[in-house]
Structure formats: structure tokens, C-alpha cells
Amino acid sequence: MNVPNILTSIRIILVPFLVVVFYLPFHWSYLVSAGIFFFAAGTDWFDGYLARKLNQTTPFGEFFDPVADKIMVATALCLLIDEFRALWMTVPAMIIIGREIVISALREWMAELGKRTSVAVSMIGKAKTMAQMASITFLLLSPPPIENWIGYLGVVLLYISSVLTLWSMYVYLKAAWPDLTPFKKEEK
């Protein structure tokens, strides 16, 4: 274990704490759950930075880092869907979670073909992640009904991240399309 892997592990360990704190019947539960999520989002950036800077990339980190991100984001989005119980929250959350499932499956399949680099993380994906993390943090801070600029900013960023989510999925699928649709020559 190295520091980047410990940070990734902490992110996974924080998931149940996020859920428990979010549902606590205290007015401060929104603030603390947003803090937990914000801290986890920070470890996502920091563990990757340290792994590259210190040359401490490991198979564990390469596998669990994206898994930890997806678990944390999907959990937070499910909490927000439950809290807001509104179509305007559910649709973008479904887009984000659905895209993560599709792209994870695509990356796994492309890796089996030995072509994982053709679906490597892009700048669009990084922008999507930043908008998504900020959006979720702001929305966790803003219980319904939203009555402040932080909540409204969270909603705007949620929709921006949904658009970036679809765009990045299109980019990944376009890159993989030749491998998804090969034409086999008929043997004579």
C-alpha cells in the first residue's frame, strides 16, 4: 500500500458514512455530508496526482480508483434522487449513472481486445467529472426546496455535467465504433 492507494481506499470507506450522515435527523447533516463528498472528490484528484508525481501507480490503484469514484458518485446521486423526488433530478442522475455503466463496460471490453487506450480518459471526461463533483457537493448542501444560489448553481452544474456526460460517451463510443462493428468477410 502507498499513499495514493490509501486515499482510494478512504474514498470507498467514506461511502457508508456519507449515507448515514445524510440521513441523520439533524440540520447539519447536509453540511457534513457535502463535506464528506467534497473530501472524497479531493482525494480523487490528489491520489491520481500523487501516483503520477511519485511514480506509484499500481494495479490496485488503476482498478479501484475509477471504481471508488463511480461508487461515491452513484451513491450521492441516489441520495439526491431520494431527497428531491423530482424528475428534474432523476433524469440527469440516470444519464450520469447510465453513462458510467456503459463506459465501464466499453473499457473492459476494449481492454480484452488490447485496445484500452482508444477509450482512455479525455479532457471532456475530466471537465465532466469536475462539473459533476461540484454539482453534487452544492446539491448536498441545499436541501429541498432549493432556495439559495448554491442550490441553483448545483442544478445548473448538474445539467452541464449531464450534457458533458453524453458528449464524452459519444466521443468514447465513436473511438470504439470500428471495433464494435467489424464486418467479417465470408469464407469461401
Characterization of the model:
The protein has 188 residues and is mainly α. It has helices spanning 3-23, 29-53, 59-84, 87-112, 123-140, 149-180. Helix 2 runs antiparallel to helix 5 (123-140), helix 3 (59-84) runs antiparallel to helix 4 and helix 3 (59-84) packs across helix 5. The N and C termini lie far apart (55 Å). 31% of the residues are buried.
> What is the 3D shape?
globular
Unreliable runs: none
The level of helicity is over 70%
Report on the biggest sheet. Answer: none
The named CATH superfamily: CDP-alcohol phosphotransferase transmembrane (TM) domain
Number of DSSP strands?
0
> How many individual helices?
6
Mean pLDDT: 91
- Derived structural class: mainly alpha
Ends apart, CA distance between termini: 55 Å
* Helix and strand run: HHHHHH
Strand portion: under 5%
CA-based gyration radius: 18 Å
> How many distinct folded domains?
1
Annotate the secondary structure layout.
Layout: H1 3-23, H2 29-53, H3 59-84, H4 87-112, H5 123-140, H6 149-180
Helix pairs in contact: 1-2, 1-3, 2-3, 2-5, 3-4, 3-5, 4-6, 5-6
